[in-house]
Amino acid sequence: VGSSSVTRTYGTLGYTAPESLLGCQRPTFQNDVWSAGCVVAELYLGQPLFCATSPISAMHDILQFVGHPGGSVLPRARYPSSDLQVPMDWRSYDSEAAWRLRHINPHAADLVIKMLRMSPNRRPHLATFFKGPLFTETPISNASTRGSLEE
Description:
Blueprint: H1 18-21, H2 29-45, H3 55-66, E1 71-72, E2 89-90, H4 97-100, H5 106-115, H6 133-136, H7 143-150
Antiparallel strand pairs: 1-2
Helix pairs in contact: 2-5
């Protein structure tokens, strides 16, 4: 009655790790670290960090954010051809990360940048997140605002 084509998806494009876009078929916790980094950025920015409409535009947005020297995105990766047809080689990009995160908490920006490293093996392990200053430093006291709320 018709043909069916199978398309592999890895969740919402704006939260998909680059290795998944390139054809990695064995997602690891590092994919989740990437997605969580996108969520943390969105919580602080009030809007999604990446708003891609296709897998190729998603990779373009990622490379603009993290920066790329040009050539193969993940040089040591040996992924099968991507179902999403995302090329492995790209032109160079300067990183926009610091500029795009300039208005958020510096500790949050640092965490997001670490969570969104291109190389999955360089992303922090989930167990280390809560040891960073974003979670260990005492937040600004709300004592100064308490009086105005009670008045």
